[in-house]
Write a structure and sequence with these properties.
There is one protein chain. The chain contains 4 helices and no strands. With about 110 residues, the chain is mostly helical.
Length: about 110
């Protein structure tokens, strides 16, 4: 029984080593697609952006960019959805996202020292 698990583990590792780029890009696409669909389902105020084709297209673009780009696209997507609601709310949320990204960048820089 245990030998079968080790054989299966080895086969999975070989398969992932062979197709790692494809698997990683597909996983990144799925995460981006779920992210944009969740934003659309919870906000969805901007009817043009609430279209599933837009979410699918952004997910394809995010699959070929670094993972940090997906966070920036998602933040922009949230901010764009808030435009029809209130300009004041859009500005507040944009400032919160800006502070969050600044502190995140500083955290990364400080952890490398």
């Amino acid at each position: 029984m245990m030998d079968n698990l080790f054989v299966l583990k080895g086969q999975l590792q070989q398969t992932y080593a062979k197709y790692s780029k494809i698997i990683d890009k597909f996983a990144q696409f799925v995460v981006a697609l779920l992210t944009f669909f969740m934003i659309n389902s919870n906000l969805g105020y901007f009817e043009l952006l609430a279209n599933p084709v837009i979410a699918f297209g952004l997910s394809v673009i995010c699959a070929f960019l670094p993972p940090v780009a997906m966070a920036l696209f998602a933040a922009g997507f949230v901010i764009a959805h808030l435009y029809p609601v209130s300009l004041g709310l859009l500005i507040v949320v944009a400032m919160v996202f800006l502070l969050m990204f600044i502190f995140y960048k500083n955290h990364i820089l400080l952890s490398q020292i």
